[in-house]
Amino acid sequence: MRKWIAGVAVLVVAAGAAAFLWLGDGTADVRPAVFRAESSTAHYAPIATRALDPEPLTAAEMFPGASVTAGEVTLERKDTESLDDCAEAVWGAAADALAGCTQVLRARYATADGKVTGQFLIFNLADSAAADRLVAAFKGDGFVRPAPGTPEGFDAPRSWAQARALGHYVTVSWVGPAVSGTKADLTYPQVAVDGVGLVIQRRLLR
User: Fold this and answer.
1) pTM above 0.90, yes or no
2) At a CB cut-off of 8 Å and minimum separation 6, what does 166 contact?
3) pLDDT tens-place string over residues 68-111
4) How many domains does the chain have?
5) 20 to 30 Å CA-CA from 81: which of 59, 60, 137, 146?
6) CA distance 58 to 113
């Protein structure tokens, strides 16, 4: 858990770094203002391929709680969905890195006051090499799409996102102000939504 939070801390520090800075273009196909990507590591060797970990993901497994919390910030889970066509969840060059993807699970979150909105996605790919390719693709000309129900005022130019390759999975957490032009501290919302991916650690023990 400490390693996980430390990764998000690096995301915060890197907020001003040009390597992680992209601005949205005001269209439906937007990208985060701040983005951090992580490749898979040897820690995930037990789930490095789908052959080693063949059981499909379920929404009940990935999203067991009605909310996620970090610090004093809680985001309520609004809805979940499961996509068999992984291309529905991405746009641009990211679609070219989906070979072997069999499913995407996605959940949308929001704070009770409606000021911050976010989403979490997990992609089920063939192996860790494919997962690394998808994470790398998110650095280029393409990203995930805002989840259905995302407020129209979602301020992508102020949003933060994190993508991680975890064995043959890729997780993406993305949070931002729900109203364009407003300011919000995204530190704890990012930690909370990104923490959903900790569930996948259980598969290492199967």
Assistant:
1) no
2) 40, 44, 47, 131, 197, 200
3) 999 999 999 999 999 999 999 999 999 999 999 999 999 999 99
4) 1
5) 137
6) 29
